Structure formats: structure tokens, C-alpha cells
């Protein structure tokens, strides 16, 4: 049986959150002399002389409406990379605990584990990039606290079968972190709809991809209210800055425009999926539920440098396990994609 308090580090369970000036004062006031801000104003304009809402209440209320969850089930991070780091710090004692991930996958799970001195265990995805569930569960040790599953997976682009994810959730008594950074481009439903069933489930999403806000740094974690309360306790108090909170809130009312953009990107993805296999340099195009495509080519290093010379940057993923000869290509605009296809055709 999963019990959240059993896996939270004892020092984290015991500690109290930083109490900010804005936390200590509640009520109406017109003169704020409590936070050592500059009351003359801000050289950056607007009300940037004031600290932002540490609880991001307006933003969370809007996100809750869009995602169909309670505000208490949402954590907001300075990118989802911040959530990944805080999850390690919440449950993994440095030099003692371990995490499991499934390469080829997103590189920050490994970087963040290394930074936090968490032992890194890896089980490679199958040749069609699915989870070998029995092999994964057999690797679990008493010190394994987190399993990271990326779906749709970066850099392979495919969604992970939901039966496999469910088996992991049911048979592992640590945190199962599902990274859904690319979920908006996928037909699969989000696992946020199943939070009530699985107290060990954490779903990560981000505004960096479909919403087009990578520069603002806004990522999300969804989980039980109890787990989110712990993340909120250990986060830096003002981790989401005022400009990000304001701009994101405005963007979050443009759901129709989001739909249009996602539809266009998915259409462009389809065009690339059809055109790429016809090119002589291309050996295989992997199915994609994301805004990028993994492409196996005859000479990845040479093609990569050739494209660079043409001013086109793609990601060379050929050194990752299971990705020999592979480049990862983000779906661009119609024009960009045509230039990419022409350049590969001329290679
Ligand atoms: C799978 C995955 N998760 C998370 C991120 C990072 O998201 P953020 O910009 O919110 O830190 C990326 C970025 O490439 C990603 O591919």
C-alpha cells in the first residue's frame, strides 16, 4: 500500500515552509511596509516592485477550470524542470535513494538525479519504445523512490501504452511521475483524469510546448492535494514571477487560438510524416504523438552537419540507446518544413 508520509524524507516532513510577508498579512491595507520592496515604484514598469503572489491563486483557478482538476491538485514551477528537481528533493535522500527511468528519454531526469546525488537506474524501452513492464518492476529496490515515464516520450515521439502505465502504478509503492509535456499534440487522454485512483501518481505538464510559452518558464505538476501541499512547502516562495503570472493568465483565456495552433502543428506533422519516407536519405520515420518526429537516416552525423551548413538546426539523437542513426526534428511552420524537406532531398 502506498502511503505518502512513508516516502517523504523525514527532514521534509518536519520542516516548516518559509513564511513570506504576504503570507503573514491577510486583509485590506493601502500602505505596504512589510516586505522591503521599493515603494517608489519599479524601473521595469507596472507593479513589478511588488513580490508576486506566492500561491499563484488566479493562475491556478484558471488552470483548474481548463484542466478539470481542483486548484489544490496543481503545483506551478519555474518550468516543469523545477518540479522534477523538487520531486527528487521531496522523496530521495541524497547518497541513499534511487530513481528508475526508461531511456531513450528526456535528459533532465538523469541530470536532476545526479545533482541530487540520487542513484540512477535505467531500463531501456523496447525496440518499439514501449515499457518492458516486468523487467522494470524487477529492477525496483527498497531504495527506489521514483519512476519517470515520459508520454508521449521525448525523443521517440510515441505515447506509452496505458495498460503498461497502469501496471506500474498498481505495482510500485513509490512515485510514478508521468511527464506529459507533449500531451496537447496527442489523441491519448491525460492521466490527470485518474488522479483520484492513484495516490502515487504525479502528472507533469508544461506551457513551453503547445501553449508557446517556453520563454516564460511555467510548468505544472498535478497530484493529490496532500502531495501538492508538500511541493508547495518546499518550493522557493516566489518561484513564479509576476510577469509570467500576468502573461500566462492572459494567454489562458485564448483556448480557441491554442486549438487552432495545435491543429496546424498536427497537420504539418502529418505532411512531414508523409514526405520524409520518400527521401533517399531517410530510412525510417517513427510515429509521433508530439510536435516533433524521430527520423532514422543513413548517415545521421553527416546529415546533421549538412543541415547546419544550410542554416537548419535539428537535434542529433544518434548516440542515445535505441536511437542509432536518428535525428529529432521539431515540426516547424509550413515554410520551414518545406525548406527542411528540400535540404534533405538535396543531401
Ligand atoms: C519531456 C519533457 N519534459 C519537460 C520538458 C521541459 O519543460 P519546461 O520547459 O517546462 O521546463 C521538456 C522540454 O524539452 C521535455 O521534453
Automatic annotation (TrEMBL):
Recorded metabolic or biological pathway in which this protein acts: Lipid metabolism; Amino-acid biosynthesis; L-histidine biosynthesis; L-histidine from 5-phospho-alpha-D-ribose 1-diphosphate: step 7/9
SUPFAM superfamilies xref list: PLP-dependent transferases
InterPro entries: Aminotrans_II_pyridoxalP_BS, Aminotransferase_I/II_large, HisP_aminotrans, PyrdxlP-dep_Trfase, PyrdxlP-dep_Trfase_major, PyrdxlP-dep_Trfase_small
Family: Belongs to the class-II pyridoxal-phosphate-dependent aminotransferase family. Histidinol-phosphate aminotransferase subfamily.
PROSITE patterns tied to this protein: AA_TRANSFER_CLASS_2
Organism: Pontibacter saemangeumensis
NCBIfam families: hisC
Keywords of the record: Amino-acid biosynthesis, Aminotransferase, Histidine biosynthesis, Pyridoxal phosphate, Transferase
Residues with the N6-(pyridoxal phosphate)lysine modification: 209
Cofactor: pyridoxal 5'-phosphate
Name of the top EC class for this enzyme: transferase
Enzyme nomenclature, EC number: 2.6.1.9
Subunit relationships: Homodimer.
Protein name: Histidinol-phosphate aminotransferase
Pfam families from the UniProt entry: Aminotran_1_2
Reactions this protein catalyses: L-histidinol phosphate + 2-oxoglutarate = 3-(imidazol-4-yl)-2-oxopropyl phosphate + L-glutamate
Domain Aminotransferase class I/classII large, residue spans: 39-344
